[in-house]
Amino acid sequence: MNPVRLTAMVVVAGAIGIALGCQRKTGAFDQQDIDRHHAFVGAGPGFLLGVATSAYQVEGGNQNDWTDWERGSYPDGQPHVAGGASASRAADSWNLWRQDVAAIEDLGANVYRFGIEWSRLEPTEGAWDAAAVARYREMLLALRAARRHPIAPMLNLYHFTLPRWLAVRGGWEWGGAPEAFAAFAARAADAFGDLVDLWCTLNEPNVYVTKGYMAGQWPPGIRDPGRGARVLARLLRAHGLAAAAIRAHDRVDADGDGKATRVGLAHNVRVFDPAGGPVDGVIARIADDFYNRAIPDAVATGHIHIALPTAVTIDESAPELRGTFDWLGINYYTRDVLRSRLAGALLHGGAPYEPVDDPTRPHTDMGWEIYPEGLYRLLLTFAPYGWPIIVTESGVADRTGIVRPSFIRSHAYAIDRARAEGVPVIGYLHWSLMDNFEWSHGYEGRFGLYTIDFAGDPALTRRPTPAVATFQALATGLGLLPP
Ligand code: GBH
After folding, report:
1. Residue 286 backbone phi and psi in degrees, to 5
2. What's the rounded Cα separation, in Å, for the pair 291 and 283?
3. pLDDT for 425-455, tens place per residue?
4. 431 Cβ closer than 6 Å to some ligand 1 atom
5. Which of 320, 173, 153, 124 lies closest to 239 in space, CA to CA?
6. Are 126 and 165 in contact (CB under 8 A)?
7. Ligand 1 centre distance from Cα of residue 126 (Å)
8. List of domains in the chain
9. With a 6 A CB cut-off, is 114 part of the ligand 1 pocket?
10. Does position 12 have pLDDT exceeding 50, yes or no?
């Protein structure tokens, strides 16, 4: 189908979808519908079914701003990372990557989203580690030569960690950071472009700024919304420059589909529902504009608008951002139900709202509400932008492994409901392939399809959880595994 018609179709479908979405806002999925549903059937051979990880969370052996943060503690003595854990070995994927590839083959996945670590490839400014390049290439080749069918790599360039040389200059607050990132992207495209078509520039810029510059729970540990908003604008600039660099430097169509590059970004989205009255509604709308809308709006319009009332309003022209998405990546985990606390915020500072938890709803080990309807609602919300959508992350912290199968099935159902209404979802990637270093939660958040006994098993064996079979059933439905 020609792109104009496709776009028109998507916009119309999206508009209808939004109307439906509003109507059905509180309409919970019927468990019997989910149980009966065969997910992704008819999605077509091009559908991307895969798993995701990030470099720092799985590789081990890295030295960057997070390594330094892990060693630190808060003024009250609490370590920055629960239990004082560190990612010094993590899942040891730097050495055990063949086991990772074998696990992905067993799943039947046809795409693997993973990171290349900037601090490893460019340990000092301008340097380039040829041995690290060779090791990543070895893995890329193994993915392309996988057992049943090729596993397309989706290469992620930035996922929360910065080289030390850049962090000491001020990280993303340093004016030269976007250009430095684009230079890294260009070199990565030169080094890996013959094996990679799917490029993800940034992971969750909104999560990075809220954790690193507002909550102060991640490096650089700042609590200043204004600075956070400015860093978000910087990250958008960095994305724009990197997208251009990737397209200029990767001219090789690795998979023969006629396109050398398909560039996007993984955007964390959350449903913000008001707990009650009109003020809660206004607050939810502000949260939605800042958290969910600012990034795609900037790319759609070529204008950066970031507003945090009472803290900062940024308005900048950025025409170079237009056209930088071949796809939009959606990372979805949970929703927030918000009750405003404006008076409290004005008098004592802090967030202008507090989350209201409904204890009757199911929750994950991290305390996040399990709300698959939110994925459906958000897919309808993002469809009118017109980009094909890849669910670049969806997953659940579940130490037992018992919850994950139904979590996968309900979220796949949410995707299919959106697809049935015309939303062009072209892929689903589960977070995560295996248990890994869950940032400030250390090894307490278990997101893996494969579990790892970090404390008791020095071999770090990847052991399948019950959800492996659930995922394999999706692959079978898509013809990626034999019935
Ligand atoms: C993703 O972030 C990351 O890309 C990945 O590195 C990470 O391992 C994975 O998800 C699992 O966390 O604690 O009240 O703020 C998702 C980050 C998840 C942050 C939901 C905010 C809301 C609950 N977000 N979370 S709260």
Report:
1. -65, -45
2. 12
3. 999 999 999 999 999 999 999 999 999 999 9
4. yes
5. 320
6. no
7. 32
8. 3-24+50-477 (3.20.20.80)
9. no
10. no
